[in-house]
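Hi there,

I know you've been waiting on this one. I reran it after we fixed the sequence typo, so this is the corrected version. Both the input and the resulting structure follow.
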Amino acid sequence: MGTMSLPLVLLSFILFSVMQHPTLALKRAYVVYLGRHSHGAEPTSVDLGRITDSHHELLGSCMGSKKKAQEAIFYSYTHHINGFAANLEEEEAAELSKKPGVVSVFPNQKHELKTTRSWQFLGLERNGEIPADSLWVKARFGEDIIIGNIDTGVWPESESFNDQGMGPIPSKWKGYCEPKDDVKCNRKLIGARYFNKGVEAELGIPLNSTYQTARDLNGHGTHTLSTAGGAFVGGANLFGSTNGSAKGGSPNARVAAYKACWLPRCNDVDVLAAFDAAIHDGVDILSVSADFISRDYFLDSIAIGSFHAVQNGIVVVCSGGNDGPTLGSVRNTAPWIITVAASTIDRDCPSNVMLGNNKLLKGRSFYTNISPAEKFYPLVYSVDARAANASASNAQVCSVGSLDPKKVKGKIVFCMVGVNENVEKSWVVAQAGGIGMILSDRQSTDYSFSEPHFLPTSHVSAFDGLSILLYIHTTKYPVAYIYGETEVGKVAAPIMPTFSSRGPNPITPEILKPDITAPGVQILAAYSGAAGPTGLELDDRRVPFSIISGTSMSCPHVAGIIGLLKKIHPEWSPSAIRSAIMTTARTRTNLGQNLVNETLGETNPLSYGAGHIWPNRAMDPGLVYDLTNTDYLNFLCSIGYNSTQLSTFVEKKYQCPSNPMKLLDLNYPSIIVPSLSGKVTVTRTLKNVGTPATYTVRAETPTGISVKVEPKRLKFEKINEEKTFKVTLEVKGDVEGGDYVFGRLIWSDGEHYVRSPIVVNATTLHL
């Protein structure tokens, strides 16, 4: 009894103390968003001080003292975005949200971070040569365009950021590299900044030196930044795979890294600070390969930051997310953002198995070819080579410590997927003295893919894995060898991978998302010198280039292409650029077939948006669907924001239209009707950005839907002339209620083809 009385007394004391001290209430970081600033483009230090003081005053009115507010606020957004980040109790946040002038208050959340062949596949080069009609040539490779990247930072020593041959930095640039950081700027890498106060607020302790740098310790940011604007670098490869010349979409662009992502997530408060800085610094394009669970636009730091960027003429490109193939999983869905899906290119990295019975089985890996080549080596099943103290189940998946070096040395080991990381299995085999690994899937639905293994590996299908096991168990001395080489130009592409997030838009289903798809599978680009290519702590290998997949990789492809378009058409708005990309996209593979998914099933615009980006066509689209800042404000009125709230976003007083715009009528380059019963008419306006011409329309009608367009011809006599048309969609025939059906609208003058996807979800069931 006596031994239990002290804990009971202590517990009673703690409970009493907590009840007597309400200040122990949980605090967390919040963003308090106030719209835009009223100061001009060049605020003085007095202006900035006044803004910060106003933030202290506002928060102090809720906390009871200005001093408490100063202690709570750890970011004041003072340049273009008006607001602050602070550690608040839930009740304080709720009280703040009711204050006049406060647009939104939301808790800080974490955002997930989501090449040698890409650009040839996209038509910018042919057989290693750059033709005279390439967008690269006409745009001078994106010369002096400034691309900002909000990510995990940059590895400045990478050859992709070499400034050889580059002229002076553009005079408009106001950015810099952090003066106390060891990341040094040059004429290529002209900015490198970091934003860590959100991490510090989350951890609740002072940050060590690893957080006081824009240096990329993860690899993700270096990869994405070099994909968008990296210089030409010859001999790029990963363990011999995908060898060639690496370069970004705009190789002559200037680049700037904004490190707001750590380990490897991004906090709302840090991302918003990065947006504010990038807008002030003078970037032309922002690439953001991060996403999170969709939420209201003004409770979302990427939506808020990108809204302010677009208002300042900056194009914002974001990854669409890696949560496919679930419908409605697409992220970064605000209509002012260009949202990118991921797809494959016509390159593969096979790593095949030749058995001693001369049976060839196909597999994949970035690390292949046991040396010397085509020599047979002993082959053993991992369960038969298990260590004395290891279970059969652990040995089957080649977990750490499960293999006996005496039974593995000099052999190829057969392992199964499951439990531990695939690449860790190859490390286990290598540590035990093996010279190769065959990795088998378990189920026919599994998808084998290439990875940067620790020794020559072949990842095979479940069916082929069974064949190999049968060979091992029916052969006295089973042997095999592993070999392969990168294949280009022979692979059907693009194909939509399972991971790429799908529409419909979960926030505003009347806006089709994603907008476009671009290369995002097995992309080679520059990498951090502080991380191994697998991302595992045990991986001490260092590589100048690595291969990664995801919409994080497709996003900077689009950003790089936009750099070229901005160079040729500096007068185009962000929405005009998006339109040019979308309306010139292609929806067929290099074999002339409709786009498909990994299982070769036909896919649709909920997966790829308008289609696969095709840069050379985008520089001359003929017509564009343009949008102004006022159009976006009208859109926000239509989804429930009022004039008072929206007036904080513009210099002049703004009034919502007395008759709110229909969401279906936002002048977007695609048409989606998420719930059609009977018929509906939508309105669109086209702007001429080419020569005078007359365009006629034709429609590829969705199944069970009639499409009527009025007028059917549009005559443009001068540049920037605009013409409006209406599209009436009506349910006809047999349509399964709740199923999406797809078509296209195409305007053409015989030279240009302005394509828009049509997506309809018919709610009327005709029997």
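Quick highlight: The radius of gyration is 28 Å.

Best,
R. S.
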